[in-house]
């Protein structure tokens, strides 16, 4: 978890729009294992440690169902602390007939599933960074089959899954974008990230501090894909947490130098990538 603590900048919160808050809360509590930190009739902040929220849900009054072939969320990723946690949630999914996909990315082991609105999430663990291979400045990743037999050897005997471990974090976010050239400029020159992997000319992986990625972007919904409707199900925003005000001020300056829109919103700054994905800049 060393890539998700200060002084490294990282994604610490994701805000989602849903069509039915009660249905979504049932899923995120009973299936995934979040607790509710606070809620209103149309919003809920979810937590794993009882103190901070890493995921928020909102049901807009005029919400419409998820649209296809747009920019926006590809998936958000929940990072578990230990391998036994991943093994335990696999057993939980199987026992509850939850459909999910999986992959061994070399740097991590991951599960993939959808919430009731079709928003995709990844639940994963990292391999130790000493095991990652680098080809120059690019980390080596793959989409290999996950070895469930070996993974389930780490399952805690007779333990029923009830909630996510308190040290669970948002590990990264993966976005659909409309193109890659301006996207790269925004995340590198604007937000100060490094490109750590170029995947087939259709995806870019960015990070701070040589993580395998804090943000990924792809054009798999088509070059020139439009932004989703503002009231559509999907991503509302994600938050980058900076070490201190000086680092954030420098980032705001960099964003303005490339003519990115930046505005003040309460204690945060807000910006938008070239495809309209909304990003909060927090300290």
From TrEMBL:
It comes from the Bacteria. PANTHER family: CATECHOL-2,3-DIOXYGENASE (PTHR43279:SF1). The keyword Metal-binding applies. Coiled coil: none annotated. This is VOC family protein. Residues 10-126, 169-283 form the VOC domain. Keywords: Metal-binding. It holds the Pfam family Glyoxalase.
